[in-house]
Specification:
Strand order of the largest sheet: 1-2
Order of helices and strands: HEEH
Helix content: 55-70%
Low-confidence stretches: none
Mean pLDDT: 89
Number of strands: 2
Distance between the termini: 57 Å
Structural class: alpha+beta
Length: 96
Amino acid sequence: MLTLIFTAFLGAYAAQRIKICNNQGVWQILINYQQIWQDFLEALQMLESLRVRSIGFGRVSRNYFDSSITPWLSQSFGVSLKIPTLNLPALPTPQK
């Protein structure tokens, strides 16, 4: 199903950016490369914006859980929860 949706999206996009003309028996294909490149760059910017927003949302959610929900559960129900923290590897610092 996802493949069909993607194919329909790609076909609709190509129909807007590619023109096929028959000029006195000579077939021509006109491709608007400038618009395609501009759309590609805009899509990359949109993905970057989504990445930044999702990371920010995750940080806000984690801070809310640590500062509000965990103490409330501990005080009200005696439940102690701790969410594991992902420690990413870091490059070694050069020593002088």
